[in-house]
Amino acid sequence: MFYFVNTADSSVRSDLEEWNRVAAELVNQAPAVSSDSPLLGRIEANARLILLIRANSLVEPESFRGVRDQTGNLQAGAIVTDISDYLYVDYIATAPWNITKDLLTAIFRLVSHRYSTTQWLSLTDCVAYSSGNRCKSINGAGTSLMVKLVQESISKGYSGRIMLEAVSGTTEFYQRIGFVRTGFGSDAAPEMELTPIAARDLLRRYS
Questions:
Q1: What are the structural domain ranges in the chain?
Q2: Under CATH, domain 2-206 is a member of which superfamily?
């Protein structure tokens, strides 16, 4: 379903520009979502991560990792650092149209009194409400990218070990795929580790 990208070439940089545009529009065009809403918080956090990934990809293109779907759409991306005995994920984000259809549907319901269906769906680049239209949104991109990173970690002799900070309410996702808290970091961004045992289990479940 996905294939691995291990550097930020010109096509990736172009895709990240598109991500940035769509993410910024999503943030700006969801005024009906309250400031403490987890939906808006996730969209805003993903937009910030996209900015960081885009900036780092320009400086160190070899640090970029990502996955494309079968039609070539970049669906998830990350900046990764090799730390001698594990891979450290500095930033990871999904394509903005992958905040999931459920989240976009919930937000659409909140803002539908201000925007037409066509305006909102054009904004998200995913016409999920009409089966006759092409939709970029896809499930599983983040998990697929993590599987690819585990495979890279193994190939480097690190036994699949990965470390990261679970920012912006992503802790539950990482725990679901096998990460555990290390006790470091903060409540808002706890440091988490995928151990070699958990890495093997992740490959068993998702490869």
A1: 2-206
A2: Gcn5-related N-acetyltransferase (GNAT) (3.40.630.30)
| pTM: predicted TM-score of the whole model, two decimal places | 0.84
**What DSSP letter does each residue of the chain carry, written as one string?**
-EEEE-S--HHHHHHHHHHHHHHHHHHHT-TTS-TT-HHHHHHHHHHHHHHHHHHHHHH-GGGEEEEEETT--EEEEEEEEE-SSSEEEEEEEE-GGGS-HHHHHHHHHHHTTTS-HHHHHHHHTB-TT-TTS-B---SSHHHHHHHHHHHHHHHTTSTT-EEEE--TT-HHHHHHTT-EEEEEE-SSSEEEEE-HHHHHHHHHHH-
pLDDT in tens, 34-67: 555 666 778 888 999 999 999 999 999 999 999 9
